[in-house]
Amino acid sequence: MALKISLKPQERIIIGGAVVKNGSARSILVIENDVPILREKDIMSEKDASTPCRRIYFVVQLMYIDEKNLREYHNLYWKLIRDLLKAAPSLLGIVDQISEYILANKYYRALKLARKLINYEEEVVNNVRNTTNRSL
Fold first, then answer.
1. Helix axis angle, 52-65 to 92-103, nearest 10°
2. Of the candidates 46, 49, 73, the residue with the CA atom closest to the CA atom of residue 60
3. Whose CA, among 59, 60, 115, 131, lies 20 to 30 Å from 47?
4. CA-to-CA distance for 26 and 11, rounded, in angstroms?
């Protein structure tokens, strides 16, 4: 079944590992085979992978779009997960779900769940900032 994607002007998308940038007008693409696809809003650059949960998201993204280096990305993922769970054992449930998807080669689903890790991390940081600001 084909996937129809509408792109805004200048929007980027990754299709099968290739970064594609739309021109100055709205475009519609029809993807007729099964390839990894990431819209610009879901793409994280390496420089933006600046926190533990963002690094996990970035590595899962690489698993999804760069099949050639899966072993390297898997090794890095398991290291990052071990470190994260040492610091935040309460994340075990969501980490287990992400890991199940990874083991089943369902990287896009794992990526969507990894976004929840980032949201959690941002919430914790904001709570700490708010508490610190009130204390001062």
1. 10
2. 73
3. 131
4. 9
Angle in degrees, 0-180, between the axes of helices 52-65 and 70-87, rounded to the nearest 10: 160
Q: Which residues, 6 or more positions from 80, have their beta carbon under 8 angstroms from its beta carbon?
A: 52, 55, 56, 59
State the amino acid at position 127 in one-letter form: N
Residues for the chain: how many in total? 136
pLDDT tens digits along 105-133: 999 999 999 999 999 999 888 887 777 76
Listing DSSP states for 94-136 in one string gives: HHHHHHHHHHTT-HHHHHHHHHHHHHHHHHHHHHHHHHHHHH-
